[in-house]
């Protein structure tokens, strides 16, 4: 089936393909008998995709060599949507491309220069995200967290209530899934949010200017459970345990965050901010040309709070800090916490939701992370700055909005830039 689709794609685009290539493809088609197994078909599909990409790159570079030195692929010169669709419909993900042995990345992954990391400044100390000992005295923990949330919007905690062995097994189960055969993973590949669980690549694949070097498994944990049939077997046991442990720590963190704002400790809980939990595991395979793409483009998280664990492949998650980027170092057993757009707005800008990104992985081993997003479960109510934080000297920075509408806006935009908090901003200069 996949093979047929690939061949028809090639034929439709045959005007781009030289005669000898068409002969090669015809021979390939003729070699296929009814006995070809689906795995063989799949391998062939992968080879065809690589072939197409290689050919297009070659063709493109050849045509433009005498005009420009820049190797950058522009959307104007090729039918991007067709190639994106082809990649999506192949269901092989980025890991599938890597498994097929590619040495150059398909051009749909070529990021515009502004999304690529600049060379690291020399002779300057590397900025890193603060690490907070969660077992310290409560008032000191509250103050350190308040301080981090008011500036960088990110911190890591160690000596917290989630056992390190549980972090290891959660990451291990996710890695096990992503490292299954392409044929196995394909059964779970789709983009329908309704089932509460989906394996796919690049959730904004059709909205973004360029794809990123990452695959993702997303499972909604609460308020509704996922359809467990849609969750890969090796993740079914660990996910409920993981969710429970993370939700417990989330409750503690939210009360600390409220305290830092001078609010009653259960204010965020009252507004159902602990109840809408989505667990998202990202797999960042090694990238043969990490200088041309990214793992995850710079973005802010839309929800209230995000908690992330990562494996030992560090130095790739970065947080925007002025004109520079601070590294979120890989610390075994640590949990990364960051403020989302909703919390920034609810805190009336006391806490900051800060842009972050993941660089493409130049390492030999895959980077695996698991993020749990905390969102309100009550979607039809109004959200906005806490009235306790608004006064004549500190007017509301944001207007109120219904969470439902807010999320719709988020998912129809590209995962890039910071447009949503600005969208709800009140122009206080007119008052
Ligand atoms: O993979 C990571 O470490 C970060 C993931 C992230 O920022 C996100 O999913 O929003
Ligand atoms: Fe994020």
UniProtKB/TrEMBL annotation:
Keyword 4Fe-4S listed: no
Keyword Transcription in record: no
InterPro entries on file: DIOX_N, IPNS-like_FE2OG_OXY, IPNS-like_sf, Oxoglu/Fe-dep_dioxygenase_dom
UniProt xrefs under Pfam families: 2OG-FeII_Oxy, DIOX_N
GO MF annotation: an example: metal ion binding
Keywords noted in UniProt: Iron, Metal-binding, Oxidoreductase
Domain of life: Eukaryota
SUPFAM superfamilies associated with the record: Clavaminate synthase-like (SSF51197)
Domain called Fe2OG dioxygenase: residue spans: 269-376
Family: Belongs to the iron/ascorbate-dependent oxidoreductase family.
Name of the protein described by the UniProt record: Fe2OG dioxygenase domain-containing protein
Organism: Tagetes erecta (African marigold)
């Amino acid at each position: 089936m996949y093979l047929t689709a690939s061949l028809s794609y090639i034929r439709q685009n045959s005007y781009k393909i030289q005669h000898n290539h068409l002969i090669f493809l015809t021979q390939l088609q003729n070699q296929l008998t009814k006995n070809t197994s689906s795995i063989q078909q799949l391998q062939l599909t992968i080879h065809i995709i690589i072939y197409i990409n290689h050919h297009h790159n070659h063709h493109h570079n050849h045509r433009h060599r005498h005009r420009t030195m820049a190797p950058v692929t522009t959307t104007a010169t090729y039918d991007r949507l067709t190639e994106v669709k082809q990649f999506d419909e192949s269901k092989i993900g980025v890991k599938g491309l890597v498994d097929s042995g590619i040495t150059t990345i398909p051009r749909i992954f070529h990021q515009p220069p502004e999304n690529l990391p600049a060379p690291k400044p020399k002779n300057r100390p590397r900025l890193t995200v603060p690490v907070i000992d969660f077992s310290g005295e409560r008032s000191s923990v509250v103050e350190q967290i308040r301080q981090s949330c008011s500036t960088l919007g990110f911190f890591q905690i160690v000596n917290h209530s989630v056992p390190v062995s549980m972090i290891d097994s959660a990451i291990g189960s996710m890695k096990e899934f992503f490292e299954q055969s392409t044929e196995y993973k394909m059964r779970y590949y789709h983009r329908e949010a309704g089932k509460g669980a989906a394996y796919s690549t690049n959730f904004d694949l059709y909205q973004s200017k360029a794809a990123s070097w990452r695959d993702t498994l997303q499972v909604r944990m609460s308020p509704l459970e996922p359809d467990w049939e849609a969750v890969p077997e090796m993740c079914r046991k660990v996910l409920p345990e993981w969710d429970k442990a993370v939700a417990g720590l989330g409750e503690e963190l939210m009360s600390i965050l409220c305290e830092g704002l001078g609010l009653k400790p259960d204010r965020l809980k009252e507004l159902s901010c602990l109840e809408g939990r989505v667990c998202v595991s990202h797999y960042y395979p090694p990238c043969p040309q990490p200088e041309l793409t990214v793992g995850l483009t710079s973005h802010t998280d839309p929800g209230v709070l995000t908690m992330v664990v990562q494996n030992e492949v560090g130095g790739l998650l970065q947080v925007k800090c002025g004109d520079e980027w601070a590294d979120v170092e890989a610390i075994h057993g640590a949990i990364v916490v960051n403020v989302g757009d909703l919390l920034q707005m609810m805190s009336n800008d006391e806490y900051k939701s800060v842009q972050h990104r993941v660089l493409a992985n130049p390492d030999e081993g895959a980077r695996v992370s698991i993020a749990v997003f905390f969102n309100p479960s009550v979607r039809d109510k109004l959200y906005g700055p806490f009235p306790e934080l608004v006064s004549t000297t500190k007017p509301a920075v944001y207007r109120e909005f219904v969470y439902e509408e807010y999320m719709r806006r988020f998912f129809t935009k590209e995962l890039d830039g910071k447009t949503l908090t600005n969208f709800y901003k009140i122009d206080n200069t007119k008052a």
